[in-house]
Amino acid sequence: MKQPVDNSTLERQLSWRYATKRFNPAKKIAARDWDTLEQSLVAAPSSFGLEPWRFITIADAGLRKQLQAASWNQPQVVEASHLVVLAAKTSMDEAYVSAFIKRVAETRSIPESALDGYRGMITGFVGSLSAPGAVESWCTNQTYLALGMLLTSAAVLGIDACPLEGIDRSAYNELLGLPAKGYSAKVAVALGYRADDDALASMPKVRFSRDEVFERR
Ligand SMILES: Cc1cc2nc3c(=O)[nH]c(=O)nc-3n(C[C@H](O)[C@H](O)[C@H](O)COP(=O)(O)O)c2cc1C
Fold first, then answer.
1. Cα-to-centroid distance, 61 and ligand 1 (Å)
2. Domain presence at residue 29
3. Is 109 inside any structural domain?
């Protein structure tokens, strides 16, 4: 197979991206591009494949304004073309695992009984997460992987993004009605196109050197 994206393109896009502070509110992400970005979240890997997350897209301007107030008033929340909130599952019950096993069986045309061992592995592992908050924390780790997929995909498509952890998660949960559905907001992502006057766009990227972050044995 021909190399799908050449090295220099990937390197260029990874250094092109930055956590965008000011978006151009007039520039919207095209539907086809947004479709691909949503798919990048769906395609994210997760432990056992359980996809323990929910992605909430917010187009409503009034709700965006309310969320901005719960986000240190960061302008990206209202100025960006798109806003998505990544939420993690707060618990994992037998019914959820069963629904997942059913999906695997259907998708791969295999009997559910052939997955009994896998089901046992999953329920055994989930059962071992008995400390308070342990399941949510495990699900949260995976939600951040989805964040990485989204940010990288946006960069490759030449779409700007800003991950936002500077949010009041409790306020987000309340505004989005997440706890009743078994989810908790973790991180928001604003996506769109940088404003011409975002001073950060032209600043050099700050990173430790490769030797400082790699240990080679
Ligand atoms: C999980 C996470 C949360 C972040 N939260 C915010 C935020 O609330 N507001 C913001 O402006 N930038 C936020 N950032 C952006 C970081 O400050 C930024 O990624 C970092 O300084 C490196 O710069 P770069 O992404 O521009 O290369 C966040 C980044 C990550 C990964």
1. 23
2. yes
3. no
